[in-house]
Structure formats: structure tokens, C-alpha cells
Amino acid sequence: MKKSTYIKWILTVLVTIYLLFIGYISYNNSQSDRFGDEVAHMVGGSYVLKGKVLYKDLQFNHLPLNYYMSSLVEHTTQPSNLFLYISKQRLAIFGYGAAWDLLYILAFGPISLLFILFFEIIKFPYAGHKLLGETLATYPLVFITSIFIQSLFFEKQISRWKLILTSISSFMAGFSLLPLWVLLIPMNLIIWWKSKDKKNTFLYLGVPLLLLIGVLFLFVSPLDILQETFTYNVQFFLPAAERFRPSIWFVLTFPFFALTPPFTGMKVVSAILVIQFLTSGYLFYRKKTCFSGYYY
After folding, report:
1. Higher-confidence residue: 289 or 158?
2. Which residues pair with 253 in a beta bridge?
3. DSSP characters for the chain?
């Protein structure tokens, strides 16, 4: 067994132990307060199991994977009461995140530990353990972003299985949280552009995505999705919510004030993420042998 493979499996075992601890926290938070969007996803999922069609029989302004995730969990676990129903939904989100974390280790090696250790423990105060589009989209988006950075800083061709997972991740992120398409499309194009084998890269990035979209459109109309999640949001929801939104200047400069008092929870999270981003960028730039060996 290659040394890099051996280390990956050791890391997988250690991360699994850590995730058991996170699972214990998730279990203790499985009956915590419900967020409005989460409730809507659960209700929508239940109606799907009763034969209702999203965006035709039911009017929702979020993307379909949020509701199908809920319906899948309910159909699989068959909870007998409301308390178990909510608990199963929350624990399913934990399992979803844990599976992605283990995938990060196998795909990217030690450098993914920084994200796993910090994100999994700090997500609870920010609803990261709940059935939300942001929760479902974060993990595949992290995978895509890692592949994107890898393609920018390394000249080697991204492996076939990573490209296929990138395609699947694009589907999962893009149909969980609508605004991510403005990131997903250019990142996928750049990954393709930076590849050596552009023909096969195009196939591996495009075919799984198109197949999954085709399957989804067998259950929901693309025109109905567009109308309910984009048109109505732009026409009605966004103008009503505009007065609650921070300015663009605040969003762009917030990370620079993360290390200044008072140290709120959000500032601490932002500081950790900024430090992680800079550290990862430095390691990628220097192409450290101790890390780069785990990518291929």
C-alpha cells in the first residue's frame, strides 16, 4: 500500500471518530428550535409523498432538492410521531454532511481536515444542522471549489472520478440553492478550460449533470421551477426583503473586521474561514510536496 493511501485511511478513521462526537451533538440538537424554511421543506416533502407535484400543486419558492431530501428521509425512516420525524430529519442532515467529510479526506487528503474540524463544530449556532438549502449546498460547493482551486494551481489532469463527482456536486448545489449557479457555471468552465483533455473533461462534467437534470424534470416542470423560484422571487420576495439586507460594501469588507472587537460569533467564524482560505491558498501556491502528493 502506498504511503499516501495509508495516511488517507488513518485520517479517515480519525475523522470518523470526530464525526461520532459531532453526531452526539447533532442528536442533542435534534429537537432544537425550527427555522421557517426548514419547516416548509419538511411540509413540502410530506406532500410529495402524498402525490402532490412541486410548483404545480404546491407553491414554494425554494429549489426541489430541499423537499425531495425531506421526503426521502420520511419515506425511509417512517417516523411514528412528530418528535421522531424532526429528529430523523436532523440526523439525516448529519449523515449527509459526514459522508461528504469522509469523501473530502479520500479526495483531498490532510488539507481537508482544516475545513472539517472547524466547520462541523461551528455550524450549529448558524443552523448548519437543519434541513436548509444552504446546508445541502455547502458540502458539494466545497468539493467543487476544491477541484476548481486544484485545476488552477496544478497542471495535472483532474481524475475521471473527481470530474464525475464535480458534475454530481454541481447538480446538488445548483438545485438546492438557486444563486449558486452564478458561481457553478464559471467554475466548471474554468475547470474544463484548464484541463489537458478537454473532450473527456467536457463529457465527465456535462453528461452526469444533464442526466440528473433530465431525471429531475421527469418529476417537476422546468418552467414551473423557473417561475416559482426565480421569477416570483425577483418580482415579490427580493424587493420586500431588500430593507433587511446589508450593503454590498459591508459584505465585501466584513472579513477585514473579523479580528476587531467586539468578538461576536459571526466574526470568529469569518476569521477562521479567512485564515483557512489564506493558508490553503499558500499551500497550493507553494505546491508543498507533503500535500500535493495526496491529490492524484
Report:
1. 158
2. none
3. --HHHHHHHHHHHHHHHHHHHHHHHHHHTTTSPPPHHHHHHHHHHHHHHTTPPBTTTB--SS-HHHHHHHHHHHHHH--SSHHHHHHHHHHHHHHHHHHHHHHHHHHHGGGGHHHHHHHHHHSGGGTTTSS-HHHHHHHHHHHHHHHHHHHHH--SPPPHHHHHHHHHHHHHHHTT-GGGHHHHHHHHHHHHHH-S-HHHHHHHHHHHHHHHHHHHTTTS-HHHHHIIIIIHIIIIIHHHHGGGSPPHHHHHHGGGGTTSSS--HHHHHHHHHHHHHHHHHHHHHHT-HHHHTT--
Phi, psi of 54 (to 5 degrees): -60, 140
**Which pTM does this prediction carry?**
0.81
Nearest-angstrom CA–CA distance, 72 and 205: 26
Phi, psi of 58 (to 5 degrees): -130, 135
B/e letters for 149-180, b = 16+ CB within 10 Å, e = fewer, are bbbebeeebbeeebbbbbbbbbbbbbbbbbeb
**CA proximity to 264, closest of 142, 117, 138, 122:** 122
Nearest Cα neighbor of 126 from 138, 114, 143 is 138
- What does the pLDDT average to over 122-127? 83
Q: At what angle do helices 113-122 and 82-108 cross, to 10 degrees?
A: 160
CA distance 194 to 281: 18
Separation of alpha carbons 234 and 285, rounded Å: 40
Give pLDDT, residue 293: 41
Span 197-231, pLDDT tens digits: 999 999 999 999 999 999 999 999 999 999 998 88
Amino acid at position 145, single letter: T
